Amino acid sequence: MLQLLVVFFGPNFLFGVSTSASYRFYAVIIGFTLNYAAYFAEIYRSGIQAVPQGQYEACQILGYSKSQQFFKIVFPQMIKNIIPAIANEVITLVKDTSLAFAISYTEMFTLAKQVAASEATIMPLFIAGVFYYVFNFIVAFIMERIEKKLSYFR
What we know:
This protein has 154 residues and is mainly α. It is 79% helix and 0% strand. It is built from six helices and no strands. It has helices at residues 2-15, 23-49, 53-62, 66-96, 108-119, 123-150. Helix 1 crosses helix 2, helix 4 (66-96) runs antiparallel to helix 6 (123-150) and helix 5 runs antiparallel to helix 6. It is flat. It starts with a helix and ends with a helix.
């Protein structure tokens, strides 16, 4: 939420640039992109480091170039190692989209709260919650299938 606030209000406070209402959408995209790019970069880094050193040594003995070493040996093992963390971050990203309310961007949960307040019923919030659950269930299901497909040594 803090990153969204900095991305939205930062240009005005730091550089005196006035932002329009349409900038809210771009601020949400920029904020989430910066935030999750850092998480995904760390996941990829740890996935590469998880490949045993012996794999690199075997590539050198076999005479692989650096690109062959990465794409034929390291990359497949890295992908297999990082799928659970990637699934976790994608699910978290879906849930974090509701934080866009912090910069007054109307997203699904904010709209559901407004409708629930105007109609004095909790059903819109329930439907929004079901949507989040179903979407996250689909993401988890797809990632689980990919993970099972890649677990060829078990």
